[in-house]
Amino acid sequence: MEDVENKYTKATKRVKELKDFYRHLKIFFIINAILYLFKAGVLQQFLPEDIYLKPYYFNWVDAHLVIWILILAIHAGFLFRHKLPFLQKWEERQIQKYMEKEEHEKRRYK
Questions:
Q1: What distance in Å separates the CA atoms of residue 87 and residue 74, rounded to the nearest whole number?
Q2: Sequence spans of domains, the chain
Q3: CB 57: neighbour CB atoms within 10 A?
């Protein structure tokens, strides 16, 4: 019974992680589409007439996009860490290394 509950808990956690990633992706596209529409001058017609935004006001949008893409890549890497075999092999090697180190320390002090 505990095994079924454990599998259910893991599956629930995985679905929540996927939902969070897709929400992050959706927000990324919406915000950056709006920013690029402002940068292109398309949305300026919806602003009050006394506010005039010059095109160079939005030069930071490109840097913003690059930074957010890096954050999304890190989020995706964390989410799909179980799908990347080189990360699993790295984890296994690290676990083995620390287990051997601990065993070596035990033998050293006996």
A1: 14
A2: 2-79, 84-110
A3: 11
Q: Whole-model pTM? A: 0.62
Tell me the C-alpha distance between 47 and 19, whole Å. Answer: 34
Give the count of alpha carbons within 13 A of 7, CB side only: 4
Cα 105–chain centre separation: 38
Residue 21: φ, ψ to 5°: -65, -45
Contact indicator for 24, 74 with CB cutoff of 8 Å: no
Beta-carbon-side half-sphere exposure of residue 17 (alpha carbons within 13 Å): 14
| Per-residue three-class SS string for 23-81 | HHHHHHHHHHHHHHHHHHCCHHHHCCCCCCCCHHHHCHHHHHHHHHHHHHHHHHHHHCC
pLDDT at 66 over 90: yes
Q: pLDDT of 14-48, one tens digit each?
A: 889 889 999 999 999 999 999 888 888 787 777 77
**pLDDT band for position 4 (cuts 50, 70, 90):** confident
